[in-house]
Amino acid sequence: MSQNSPIPAPISSIEIIRPDDWHLHVRDDDALKAVVPFTARQCGRAVIMPNLSPPITTTAQAHQYQKRILKATEPYNYFQPLMTLYLTDTTPVEEIQSALQSGIICALKLYPAGATTNSAAGVTDIKKTYPTLEKMQQLGIPLLVHGEVTHHDVDIFDREKQFIEQRLLSITKDFPELKIVFEHITTREAVDFVTQSSPYIAATITAHHLLMNRNDMLVGGIKPHHYCLPVLKRKTHQDALIKAAISGNKKFFMGTDSAPHSQQNKETACGCAGMFSAFAAIEFYAEAFDKAGALDKLEQFSSLNGPLFYGLATNSDKITLKRESWIIPESYQFGSDRVIPLRAGKTIQWKVISK
Questions:
Q1: What share of the chain in percent tops pLDDT 90?
Q2: pLDDT for res 2
Q3: Are 324 and 350 in contact (CB under 8 A)?
Q4: For this structure, is 153 an active site residue?
């Protein structure tokens, strides 16, 4: 561009194939009714996490949970909740066959015991799950991984890196054709691992890990509503995530990990981990991609890569996002309580105008 050439006007709107959220928490009961419609307005599908209390460990439980979600999203009859089962040390091999036959279970979720919200019933020894993983590999059912070790002697900022070295490398070696989604990755090491691994390995990236780093949680005082697990990392890791998301690499796709907790449970001496972003999920991603000068790569990341990995068709309709500033509410209803959304009271630069 010559010195006197006019600066191009910023893109004012974009149209993309309706996105999917490949990692979502919607809770249950009145809280579910309050939050799941936000996702249904924007997304064609969402992978529903099973870490309720008690967790969703059987296909029968997942079927009932799906019914409650569908009831809460009736106005959005295109929306499809994709259900998951909570993997435990004792998940029966027979349950995997039932899951496949049901047609509603898309994956099993591995939570290392004690790693995050409602993970006490999670896996204590990965070797105990090997018969189940073998059956999953045989039937083509993906494993979704919360990738952190929980040893007290491991720095919380190193838990993901250590999980790769201590757990994930052995799983991929022992089950080379098991589809694995490395959930909500947060580090350069995770990006490198996924990039260099076989086509059976993919990863989700959250909007909040693209938009923020640990300074946003710690500088100027601890901000409980920016506390999540895996925790926000250094800017160098944030930069690696952005580079992966906008790269066009088909291994990376959208997974919000939107995880609502009541205000009183966040603003306490032992606050819950999780950020609520579902109310403006695709807008947050659009902002991240816009800042990186890569709006043209948003559709690939949000609407194409996930279905490709899961072997599903892309959504048949589209949504339109407009460059339009709006102020995020200070809170939303959350059952009998309130939930504080990501960037509460602040301005966001994109808005869905066609759904």
A1: 91
A2: 52
A3: yes
A4: no
Residue pLDDT, tens place only, 173-212: 999 999 999 999 999 999 999 999 999 999 999 999 999 9
The mean pLDDT of 257-279, rounded to a whole number, is: 94
Q: HEC profile for the chain? A: CCCCCCCCCCCCEEEEECCCEEEECCCCHHHHHHHHHHHHHHCCEEEECCCCCCCCCCHHHHHHHHHHHHHHCCCCCCCEEEEEEECCCCCCHHHHHHHHHHCCEEEEEECECCCCCCCCCCECCHHHHHHHHHHHHHHCCCEEECCCCCCCCCCHHHHHHHHHHHHHHHHHHHCCCCCEEECCCCCHHHHHHHHHCCCCEEEEECHHHHHCCCHHHHCCCCCHHHCCCCCCCCHHHHHHHHHHHCCCCCCEEECCCECCCCHHHHCCCCCCCCECCHHHHHHHHHHHHHHCCCHHHHHHHHHHHHHHHHCCCCCCCEEEEEEEEEECCCCEEECCEEECCCCCCCEEEEEEEEC
Q: How many angstroms separate the CA atoms of 343 and 329, rounded?
A: 9
Please determine, for residue 153, whether its predicted confidence score (pLDDT) is greater than 70.
yes
Q: pTM of the full predicted structure?
A: 0.95
Is residue 5's pLDDT more than 80?
A: no
CA distances from 122 to 96, 115, 168, 338 (A): 17, 8, 16, 28
**Annotated active-site residue in 21, 30, 239, 257:** 257
115 vs 216, which has greater pLDDT? 216
